[in-house]
Design brief:
By secondary structure, the chain is mainly β. Helices cover 4% and strands 52% of the residues. The strands form three sheets. The chain has a four-stranded antiparallel β-sheet with strand order 2-3-9-6, with no helix packed on it. A three-stranded antiparallel β-sheet has the order 4-8-7, with no helix packed on it. The radius of gyration is 16 Å and the shape is elongated. It starts with a strand and ends in an 8-residue tail after the last strand. The relative contact order is 0.31.
């Protein structure tokens, strides 16, 4: 069974010059096992990402259950557009999400 992941972020925020990479903790998962996927964002000077606008979702992969997400520590800044204090990232950010494979997952790719 193949897995397809979607990195959720505001398209305006990750278009050039933003960069990101996705790193699974393993490439092989057996029934009943857990694994983690990590996305690292590289944020250029003068830009930022809003914490509430980024995430990691599983698009395909029956038998895999998403677990909680972990975020690197954001900065708190008053945002002139929203008029309130927002959690933002500058320089870089990391998002991690754990998944578990169901115990009756059939063998496959």
């Amino acid at each position: 069974m193949s897995l397809i992941f979607l990195v959720l972020a505001d398209p305006a925020e990750i278009s050039d010059p933003f960069r990101w990479d996705l790193q699974p903790s393993t490439t092989t998962v057996k029934a009943g096992e857990e694994f983690q996927v990590e996305v690292n964002f590289l944020i250029p000077p003068g830009h930022h990402l809003y914490k509430e606008k980024i995430g990691l979702e599983l698009l395909e992969g029956e038998g895999f259950v998403p677990r909680g997400m972990e975020y690197s520590e954001p900065l708190l800044q008053k945002d002139p557009f929203f008029g309130k204090v927002m959690s933002v990232y500058e320089g870089g950010a990391t998002v991690r999400r754990k998944f578990s494979a169901s115990s009756d997952l059939p063998p496959g790719d």
